[in-house]
Amino acid sequence: MMRVLVINPNSSVAVTDGIADALAPLGAQFDVVRQEGGPETIRTDEHVAEAAEPLAARIAGAQADGYIIACFSDPGLDLARTRVSQPVVGAQEAAVLEACALADRFGIIALSERAIPRHLKRIEALGCMDRLVAELPLLDVSAEASGRDPEVYRHLRAIGETLRDRGAGAVVLGCAGMAQIAAQLQNDLGIPVIDPVAAAGRRILARLNSA
What we know:
Layout: E1 3-8, H1 13-23, E2 29-34, H2 45-60, E3 66-69, H3 77-81, E4 88-90, H4 91-102, E5 106-110, H5 116-125, E6 132-137, H6 143-146, H7 150-165, E7 170-174, H8 182-189, E8 193-194, H9 196-210
Parallel strand pairs: 1-2, 1-3, 3-4, 5-6, 5-7, 7-8
């Protein structure tokens, strides 16, 4: 069986467990680990920059058929790709490309306002800016709360409804911590809701199976 190393760059046990749960239905061997010295939530550009080298080093030192960086900011993704020959997939990249395959236009629910500029840079690099309706933020909640707090879910659903009503044919969840609510939100909105963790899992398996 193919082995994929999945790294959560934050230190939250609950988020890491949620990532493992999201990948379990895909059937491959996903070894999900966390960065124990990392912050509980990747909030700032400094967090993203500080995570890059440790993530790339961990990937370079691990034996696996492929690797997933399970964070929507894709910290260290480009650097890690210079360190190994196996495929390395980022959660944001996978989710945005999947959204573009599913719908003419898509929207993103971000964890916070300050995360949006770095997300948009990545979307522009992927050539998908003209497909983006908008990226709208939650009120700077933690990664863990984004997938577990009922009050946060009500706000998240309201943002999803706004994106749908503005023309989004799919909604991307902008944090790996939101994986647990993807199915419920899709049912509530009536359009595809893309969990970036599951999207990364599907993308890495497609890459490995086509190799």
